[in-house]
């Protein structure tokens, strides 16, 4: 079950994008960090099944949900996901399999500065305007 979540073809694309891990301390090194591929399996399982991080079956994956969450946070801050997206898009373009004939574009993340341009007068949303207090 866990091995199917991160096939070798996906791992070969993701591994070079992951940030280098800082060296362990010489004195009091703590636990050995979980393998990145194992953490990615846990992340994929949580995202695929729509469960919370605490519901990840630790015994089946060998990693806790909290560890997977931290690794995903670190990789997000390092820009791994946009880089992977660009890599996959480039591969699709090179294979001439990228069809943008049907796609969804969402601009909800783009801010309309100062409310954008107004084409007309603002209409009130109330039936009768409130009396002026001035």
UniProtKB/TrEMBL annotation:
Pfam families: DUF4096. Residues 125-134 have a biased composition (Polar residues). Residues 115-134 are annotated as: Disordered. Residues 7-85 form the Insertion element IS402-like domain. This is Insertion element IS402-like domain-containing protein. It comes from Amycolatopsis ultiminotia.
């Amino acid at each position: 079950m866990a091995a199917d979540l991160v096939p070798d073809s996906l791992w070969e694309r993701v591994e070079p994008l992951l940030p280098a891990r800082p060296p362990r301390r010489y004195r009091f090194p703590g636990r050995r960090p979980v393998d990145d591929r194992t953490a990615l399996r846990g992340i994929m399982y949580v995202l695929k099944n729509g469960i919370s991080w605490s519901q990840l079956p630790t015994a089946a994956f060998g990693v806790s949900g909290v560890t997977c969450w931290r690794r995903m946070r670190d990789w997000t801050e390092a820009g791994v996901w946009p880089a992977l997206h660009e890599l996959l898009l480039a591969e699709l373009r090179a294979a001439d399999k990228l069809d943008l004939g049907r796609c969804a574009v969402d601009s909800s993340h783009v801010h309309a500065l100062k409310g954008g341009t107004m084409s007309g007068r603002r209409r009130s949303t109330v039936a009768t305007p409130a009396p002026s207090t001035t």
